[in-house]
Amino acid sequence: MTNLDRRHILTLGAAASLTTAGRVWAAPTRNGPRILVVFLRGAYDAANVVIPVSSDFYYQSRPTLQIARPDPANPDAALPLDADWGLHPALASTLYPLWQKRQAVFVPFAGTDDLSRSHFETQDVIEMGQPLQGQRNFGSGFMSRLYGVLNGARPIAFTDQPPLTFRGGAQVPNIGLSQVNKPGVDDRQARLIQDMYKGQALAQSVSEGFQVRDEVYQTLSAEMQEANRDAISAKGFELSTRRIARLMKTDYTLGFVDVGGWDTHVNQGAAKGYLADRLSELGRGLAGFVDEIGPEAWNDTLVVVVSEFGRTFRENGNRGTDHGHGSVYWVLGGPVKGGRLAGDQARVDAASLNQGRDYPVLTDYRALLGGLFQRAYGLDRGQLDTVFPQAAPKDLQIV
Amino acid sequence: MRKSVSRSLGGAACVLVLGALGAGPALADSAPLALGPHDLALLDRITWGSTPASAAEMERLGAKRWLQDQLHPGGGDRLPPAAQAQIDALPISHESMADAVTRIDAETKVDNQITDPAAKQAAQKTRQQEMNELGKAAAARSLLRDLYSQDQLKEQLTWFWMNHFNVHLGKRDIRAMVGDYEDHAVRPRALGHFRDLLEATLRHPAMLRYLDNDQNAAGHINENYAREIMELHTMGVGSGYTQQDVQELARILTGVGVVNVNREPPRFGPAKQAFYIRDGLFEFNPNRHDFGDKMFLGHLIHGSGYGEVRQALDILAREPATAHHVSLQLATYFMGDDPPAAVVDKMARTFQSSGGDIAKVLQTLFETREFDRSLGTAFKDPVHYGVSAVRAAYDQRVIVNTTPLQNWLNRMAEGLYNHQTPDGYALASAAWSGPGQMAARFEIARQIGSGSAGLFRPDGQGAPDQPAFPLLQNALYFSGIDPSLSDPTRAALGQAVSPQDWNTLFLSSPEFMRR
């Protein structure tokens, strides 16, 4: 038994004494890394984050939004990734060090074959992970199906609302982490409330709710006491990701979290400004996660960053960008063979744009994630076909 | 059988506590109700939660006439004086949106002149707080109406349309606009014609700011609003329009924007002056409009200024996809998950034959057998949960502070005007019944059930907390709710050790989660 597993069971034992009717999880026999999926809702402007610095067309297309080519003397310049690509400078102290440690891979021209350019439609499509053709089942998300084929995984959504991607199969707990308070409903009340729901459709949700509430409070109460003593404590997304790291270090192995605020139609800024601020916040969150989970657990953890689509390659009339198509996905983690871009690439010029307007998709998200899960968990074809039906996995050898 | 020990124990303890606090007016009316289970379930669905007073009103009028009154409310707000007085005292009742936006814009310009960084930061913070207060005031007014207005269906629809035509508090100065948006654009048309409602939202600065159309101009196209009008407000995604239609509608919408306050009005040559429209903070600026012809949804629209917008809205409101999309949303809101296709089709037919008469579409829904069968089965979303709990707890005794309720709604992730993206809050129950959310609900049940929870503490320092205690075991409870409780719920309530505990358990019960 690893140290991790022992801690896990200790936590569970304590939690079980707090909730009487809560389901007791089997001790996990993990056969693969933890995975946290981070969904950037609103379609982040990938072309200004992983920047095609070798493309003159990029500089022509974005007169006010462009990020300068890498230049050590210029703090506003892109950070060099390879000969063709650079990283937004707002990520210099957070994500870039992971790249330098070869713990980050970027997959350009990634996305879906949905061309609706609707945020909500395309987010749903990705969360469901089903073939675009044919009957859709809104009651079945790909992370729920992944949970179904894994042995001993413990899933959780760190969101106020249960995400579509965890629908179907067993009830997956959700909990927003921006406010975590000492529970007021006591054990006796919790037991009576669960009695009222016995045999009802919500029974599992209710008992799971009490169990997660107690586990999260227990894992985080030490942190909250420390935070009260510290003058400076993490805020916003970083506060959430640090809490996620604590919970995933000990209790949960399959996580989902989302971050909004990426729909930059107007005045998105360049090296500084609105998008740069969002990126700084995201970068601090991800770096905080790595820091909090610690080197040992990080060696056994993957963080996948996705978004519904990219944005128009040319800037619009309001120093912003409109809804586009291809995006850039990220995979971070200790086991990642990183410091590189993975997947097929196209020359970034006017001729290669999809419908003359945005990046094409050369790597389908289902093929990408399927290939990643196959390597990370050793899934067979049947299991893969359960997670992503009718999608041939693409092995980009990310891990 | 129904006279269980627990109930009389809890009830007696309740009375004792109330007696001790000297607050017992709601106890006076304890005559049994003559309404049957169906009428009571209908009452609970059409209102923000049934109360003894609303049941008495339904009984007085008869269920049929009561429902007609709900579908066709007269003018004016039918509010108890204590609630009206609170609304009258709000800052948004004394200053128009145009005045507030103009004032804050001018103040912001002064703030920006400050050279001392600390002083500047302090001034900007003051400005933000000022706008936060305006947003909070709008939410307070809205909740007071939900809690106490006799026109309950109108208030439910106001929430529904505010969600359908969602705007978010957090963007720019929308906090200073959202109260006016609700009060002048949405609420007066909540039971009117869809076409009017659509144009009223289009002409409101809150919407134009939120979806960036105030930035949309000839040569500087921004297609954000154009897309969401078709995808969310009217036809629905996947209903047949194309990217080309989105782009053409964006061209039609060029020049539709918001007055730039504290700046000289735009000047035009004589040819363009006639096209200029200014109405409050709404502006149609012909200098920013693309006067070329457009091909929109198969219709040729000649360049004619704001008239193009009217034509486009006429086309959208007449689209069968719009009738279907809006009917589906309404049916889901008023019936719960997955309303039967036959019901939605029937509503859509009424929508088309009546020119989008919302009251008629709802009447069609209410007359179906499927609607009757759905009564009591729909899972409450957080706003229904929170508002119905406060209504049940205090009925006509008007709370003096809505802040705790606003906070509970935010904690349950359905705060007023607080959904960031234009799709609005989810209508499907799966979005609200997850483990974390159920746990949060029980915490809130405990807060509401255990005492006055800040609802009777006026804002401001040193104001005394008025004594109050939730009275859930009232006439309606004994004659309508108690007989319908399941055995497990009854058994759990029987183990309550105090009135606070009983209230917590009752507000946590499966029965109270449904409407």
Note the overall shape of chain B: globular
Instruction: Give the tally of β-strands of chain B.
Output: 5
- Distance between termini of chain B? 25 Å
Count helical runs of chain B: 25
How are helices and strands ordered from N to C of chain B? HHHHHHHHHHHHHEHEEEEHHHHHHHHHHH
Helix proportion range of chain A? 25-40%
Query: Regions of chain A with pLDDT < 50 over 5+ consecutive residues?
Result: 1-30
- Give the neighbour order of strands across the main sheet of chain B: 1-3-2
* CA-atom Rg of chain A in angstroms: 21 Å
Instruction: Name the chain pair with the biggest interface and residue counts per chain.
Output: A-B, 55 and 51 residues
> Largest sheet of chain A at a glance?
8 strands, mixed
User: How many helix segments of chain A?
Assistant: 11
Radius of gyration of chain B: 25 Å
Q: What characteristic shape of chain A results from the CA principal axes? A: globular
**What's the rounded overall pLDDT mean of chain A?**
89
Characteristics of this structure?
heterodimer; A: 399 residues; 8-stranded mixed β-sheet; 3-stranded antiparallel β-sheet; 11 strands; globular; disordered N terminus; B: mainly alpha; 25 helices; 3% strand
Give an overview in words.
The complex is a heterodimer of chains A (399) and B (515). Chain A has helices at residues 3-18, 56-61, 96-100, 119-128, 142-149, 187-197, 203-229, 236-250, 274-298, 365-377, 381-387, and strands spanning 34-40, 50-51, 79-80, 86-87, 104-111, 155-157, 254-259, 301-307, 327-333, 340-341, 363-364. Chain A is of the alpha/beta class. In chain A, strands 1, 5, 6, 7, 8, 9, 10 and 11 form an 8-stranded mixed β-sheet that branches. Chain A has a 3-stranded antiparallel β-sheet with strand order 2-4-3, with no helix packed on it. Chain B has 515 residues and is mostly helical. In chain B, 55% of the residues lie in helices and 3% in strands. Chain B contains 25 helices and 5 strands. In chain B, the strands form 2 sheets. Chain B has a 3-stranded antiparallel β-sheet. In chain B, strand 4 (294-296) and strand 5 form a beta hairpin. In chain B, helix 3 crosses helix 4 (63-71) and helix 5 packs antiparallel against helix 7 (117-148). Mean pLDDT of chain B is 92; it is low at 1-29. The chains are: A alpha/beta (399), B mainly alpha (515).
